[in-house]
Amino acid sequence: MKPSDSIQDLQYFGEFGGVNPSITDSSTYTFLSAKKMFDTFEGNTDGCYLYSRHSTPSNLYLGQALAALEGTETSNVSSSGMGAITSVLLQLCNSGDHIVSSRTIYGGTYAFLKNFSPKFNIKTSFVDITNLKKVESLITKKTKVIYCESVSNPLLEVADIESLSKISKKYNIQLIVDNTFSPLSISPKKLGANIVIHSLTKFINGSSDAVGGVVCGTQQLIDDLRNVNDGAAMLLGSSMDSFRASSILKNLKTLHVRIKQHSQNALYLAEKFESIGIKTVYPGLKSHPSYKIFTNQMNKEFGYGGMLTIDVGSLKKANSLMELMQLKNIGYLAVSLGFYKTLFSAPGTSTSSEIPEDEQKEMGISDGLIRFSVGLDNDIDRTYQAINNCMKEIEII
Fold first, then answer.
1. Nearest to 294 by CA among 376, 187, 173
2. Confidence of residue 29 (pLDDT cuts 50, 70, 90)
3. In this structure, what is the dihedral angle of CA atoms 245, 246, 248, 249, given to the nearest 10 degrees?
4. Which pairs with CB-CB distance under 8 Å and at least 24 residues apart come from 30-36?
5. Could you give all domains of the chain from N- to C-terminal order, each with its CATH number?
6. How confident is the model at residue 32 (pLDDT cuts 50, 70, 90)?
């Protein structure tokens, strides 16, 4: 079944017959018997709620919908994307273990793997995830995880998830894919990923008014994460608030409409930018080195996603262009993505600033790089003409 259809077919009724599920505004829950409480602590009951750090009805409703989105058995929502990423990695890895990670990933994830997890003697090898031979060569007996983003932040490198899955199965390790940049466009689980992660803050919520994350995987994995004795999600405490879970669930229902528009607009801008000689990276351009890989693994009706980058030559020009575009009401000079307005930032000094400058250059994060999260503009040619005028004013073209 298509992921959009799986979400559409979910049916919830509120406590009093509402078309939206009721929000449970409680931190703790009663039990009809002491034995039931004991059994719930032991993880032996279904449909009973213990304490809102563990889970809530609102969180479970959202979790069911996100599991349907990614085609997994179940999922666990958290208060941020980093809450999802750190909890699952710490659940799977012990002291002395090893991770193979894509070199281009969200700056917060990079900082966790490079600077924080070594405190627990968990080491990470960073690699060009498109170089499959190099990925396999880095796997050791201590390797527990291959970690990547389906479309990387910010360089938009595309992971060959099917091939990475074959490598992970060969060595009996877990393939974790962060699908934040390409919900609906790519379905990592269908391509062989074991675990799918999202920052719900971005496209899935889509209104830049909430922070959240999710781990989608097997029932056993999610049970382990929630275990009161040694579950990383339970013990690290990155719990999502019920009100936020409810609002994200409502926004999730329009994701299929929004992603189509984001993708359509981004492709239009990318083709226009490339046609006037601007160095443009977008997976939907035939000039993209992984265009064929993305095309082969995509859900075609949802396009190539809403993210693109351009290089205008220098940080000074990039900053001037972004400031002028904001002044002209084209969008906002802001981090994050998935908003109805276009958002733009210079990754080297913002979302990837945790990566040292020399490593940024080695990866290809240049000073003049601008990352666009393309909005839901109804007349995208009008938007392009406005950007074009700004580029002329800054003397980029």
1. 187
2. confident
3. 110
4. none
5. 3-252 (3.40.640.10), 256-394 (3.90.1150.10)
6. confident
Q: Write out the two tokens for 172.
A: 């009996």
β-partners of residue 370 are: 310
Average of per-residue pLDDT across 84-103: 98
3-state SS string over the chain? CCHHHHHHCCCCCCCCCCCCCCCCCCCECCCCCHHHHHHHHCCCCCCCCCECCCCCHHHHHHHHHHHHHHCCCEEEEECCHHHHHHHHHHHHCCCCCEEEEECCCCHHHHHHHHHHHHHHCCEEEEECCCCHHHHHHCCCCCEEEEEEECECCCCCCECCHHHHHHHHHHCCCEEEEECCCCCCCECCCCCCCCEEEEECCCCCCCCCCCCCEEEEECHHHHHHHHCCCCCHHHHHCCCCCHHHHHHHHHHHCCHHHHHHHHHHHHHHHHHHHHHCCCEEECCCCCCCCCHHHHHHHECHHHCCCCEEEEECCCHHHHHHHHHHHHHCCCEEECCCCCCCCEEEECHHHCCCCCCCHHHHHHHCCCCCEEEEECCCCCCHHHHHHHHHHHHHHHCCC
pTM assigned to the model: 0.93
331 closest CA partner among 266, 280, 274: 266
- 185-239 tens-digit pLDDT: 999 999 999 999 999 999 999 999 999 999 999 999 999 999 989 999 999 999 9
- Residues 305 and 183: their CA atoms lie apart, in Å, by 8
Report the range of poorest mean pLDDT among 37-46, 253-262, 361-370.
37-46
State the average pLDDT for the chain.
92
Q: Please, are residues 187 and 296 in contact by the beta-carbon 8 Å criterion?
A: no
- Contact between 242 and 49 (Cβ < 8 Å): no
pLDDT score of 59: 94
